[in-house]
Amino acid sequence: MCGICGFVSRDNIRPEQLRAMNDTMYHRGPDDSGAEIFDASGGYSVGLAQRRLSILDLSALGHQPMHSQDERLVVVYNGEIYNFGELREELSSYPFRSHCDTEVILAAYLKWGISCVERFQGMFAIALFDRESGELFLVRDRIGKKPLYYWINGDTLVFASELKPIMAYPGFPQNIRRDVIRRYLFQQCVNEPYSIFEDVYKVIPGQILKLALNAHPAKERITKWKYWDIAEVYNRQKEQPVGSYEEARARLKALLRDAVGKRLTADVPVGAFLSGGYDSSLVTAIAQELSPEPVKTYSIGFEEERYNEAEYAREVAGYLGTCHTELYIDEKAMFDMVESIPRYYDEPFADSSQIPSMLVAQLAAEDVTVVLSGDGGDEFFCGYNLYDSVAQAQKLDALGRLTYSVCRLPPFRKAGLLERLPFRVQVVAGNHDKETKTQLGGSSYIRVIDRMVPGGGVPFRFPIEGKYREKNWQARRMLVDEETYLPGDILCKVDRATMKYSLEARCPLLDVSVMEYSYRLPHAYKYADGVKKRILKDIAYEYIPRELLERPKVGFGVPLDKWMRGPLREQLTDMCDTEYLRRQGIFDAAYVNRFINEYLKTGDKGPASGANFSRTAWSFFVFQQWYRTYMNVR
Fold first, then answer.
1. Which of 49, 191, 197, 224 could anchor a disulfide with 488, C-beta 3.0 to 4.6 Å?
2. What residues contact 627, with CB distance under 8 A and at least 6 apart?
3. Which tens digit of pLDDT belongs to each residue from 69-127?
């Protein structure tokens, strides 16, 4: 686990400038650093740099940038390739000097070319420069565990694991991309391929970007393609359904054991996050089964009873016999994290569960350098409560279409019948876009955000559903979440929260074999008679008694309304000052000032109550907090 950055440019970038870019990510790799600049054809220079968090082969032989033996290739890389041992055996003719997975990338490229990434099982962001061909490749793992940004400006391309190194590149203009702000306020993150800055993008999960310095014509200098695409893989895999539930359960269990086993490989201490829920408990149980000594597990507890899962985690840990550590945190400990959000989430990111995520990462980092997590279980095995609503909406879809048609008849439209119907009926009746059918609700947020940020922008929802050849709305919504919410929110949250404390998070449920096998499972194996994650639960019950796991889903909670109406009130009021907003030139100053002040004074009642709009107010607060941190404007 590391941070990487670099550039291809005709600019005269000095080594100390590249090192300064690299050092903005010290937290991602405090153990070692390297930065080199190479001359290339056409007057270009190529800079590659890395901050290292040592996990495998802790010696100096793992230093990056790493060169192939013949000096043809140079690579910087962030992540883990879990099948590097098997690949190393296939590549035994290569004269390996180290025992780390980075060198396997070089050997694999020399044998198979850039298609070698299709053989990698793991999480990775790779920048590889082929000095012979004059090509730079940027590669991101299949599901987007590891971040990778790039900025294009004329003949210059700058890349990095985070935005901070790009912001530190000489002459970077820091122009905000305004057309993504509306979607950010709605989704609470800036989804791929966009970033908060103009001309800065994220490499899409499963994508390869090639920059060819010698390309003619110049417009073909940059090419991009997907080596792993969710829709393509899903549509192919579902044509080979598993016929027997018992066969599926046995095979999935074997794949999970293999995935967990690979992720226990490290030359540093390994632990696990344990919430007491199904996903983290199953991962921990398998890790405990495979580990020669008790697994170190970590959870945090809350004084607020409705958010507290610590007692459940403690019971699971006790049953499994792990070496368990828990920490009860009060509201102050969470509140103290608010100030650090823009420093480590260096574009606006408003999923408030980032705060307890940072706290549990801080706890684990006191003992271990690697943790296993249960991320991915909800998206791939139908775990979110909203999937119940999606199933219900599909049943009501025909009635909704009829209701909408009736409401559009002249006399009823003139009387505003649709707007008078109960809110849930409005949602179903208004759901007529085939590309966003499963992305229900949020119309009240959209109306507010439309007025907050005038001028349009990228769609609030993701118009991508047509490419999934799937009639079941739940299955289709899971695919949407896998492609958008999982990399844009969940995996971003975990990456930044753990790397803040130089901690590597590994997700067995996102192993490529597990993901692809899940697509072969009939949907009834995941959701049946209202039971979510059916097959994962049945596997979990082989390790842990049902009574220790069976309870409503909770998740991390943060008292946003209380904070914004209390200790953050003055800041939030200042952020929506009409004159300040006019100078900022992004928001409708008068409307936002009125909206936020109404939100602050209405309490829990009324149309702008916290129950309705705390999410929007918090997203606005986080954006302004980020803006004041990076845009040097008050």
1. 191
2. 584, 633
3. 999 999 999 999 999 999 999 999 999 999 999 999 999 999 999 999 999 999 999 99
Extract the tokens encoding 269.
């201490």
* Greatest C-alpha distance within the chain: 80
3-class state of residue 261 by DSSP? helix
Matching CATH number, 239-383+479-549, of 3.40.190.10, 3.30.160.20, 3.40.50.620, 3.20.20.80: 3.40.50.620
Determine contact, residues 145/159, Cβ cutoff 8 Å: no
Both structure tokens of 296? 């170190």
Q: What single string gives the DSSP state of each residue in 373-404?
A: --TTHHHHHT--THHHHHHHHHHTHHHHHHHH
Task: Give yes or no: 492 in active site.
Answer: no
Topology classification of domain 2-228 = Glutamine Phosphoribosylpyrophosphate, subunit 1, domain 1 (3.60.20)
Q: What is the mean pLDDT of residues 176-183?
A: 97
> What does residue 506 show for φ and ψ, rounded to 5 degrees?
-120, 140
Q: Which two tokens mark 386? A: 């909203």
CA angle centred on 183, ends 594 and 226, rounded to 5°: 170
Q: What is the dihedral of CA 361, 364, 365, 369, to 10 degrees?
A: -110
Exactly one of 2, 5, 189, 492 is catalytic; name it. 2
Q: Are 376 and 509 in contact (CB under 8 A)?
A: yes
Residues 288 and 63: their CA atoms lie apart, in Å, by 32
Work out whether strand 504-506 and strand 370-372 pair parallel, antiparallel, or are unpaired: parallel
Q: For residues 183 and 458, is the Cβ–Cβ distance under 8 A?
A: yes
Q: What is the spatial distance between Cα 501 and Cα 29, in angstroms, rounded to a whole number?
A: 10
From the list 239, 226, 247, 232, the residue with the least C-alpha distance to 114 is: 226
Q: Which helix (H) or strand (E) holds 2?
A: strand 2-9
What amino acid is encoded at 612 in this protein? N
Residue 634, pLDDT score: 45
Q: What are phi and psi of 179, to 5 degrees?
A: -75, -5
Number of H helices, E strands in the chain: 30, 17
What pLDDT was estimated at residue 556?
65
Beta bridge partners of 37: 47
pLDDT band at 56 (very low <50, low <70, confident <90, very high): confident
C-alpha–C-alpha distance, residues 534 and 456, integer Å:
41
The model's confidence at residue 444, banded by pLDDT at 50, 70 and 90, is confident
Q: Are 9 and 44 in contact (CB under 8 A)?
A: yes
pTM of the prediction? 0.94
- Average pLDDT, stretch 221-231? 97
Rounded to the nearest integer, the mean pLDDT of the chain is: 92
Question: pLDDT band for position 218 (50/70/90)?
Answer: low
Whether the upstream peptide bond of residue 170 has omega within 30° of 0, thus cis, is no
Per-residue pLDDT, averaged over 309-329, amounts to 93
182, 345, 530, 595 from 598: Cα distances, Å: 20, 29, 39, 5
> Tokens 């190529």 identify what position?
46
Residue 490: predicted pLDDT: 97
**Domain boundaries, given as residue ranges, for the chain:** 2-228, 239-383+479-549, 386-476, 560-630
Q: Is the peptide bond before 65 cis (omega within 30 degrees of 0)?
A: yes
Q: What pLDDT is recorded for position 503?
A: 97
Nearest to 532 by CA among 408, 418, 386, 414: 386
Whether the CB-CB separation of 192 and 202 falls below 8 Å is answered with yes
Q: In terms of DSSP H, where are the helices of 541-588? A: 546-549, 560-565, 569-575, 578-584
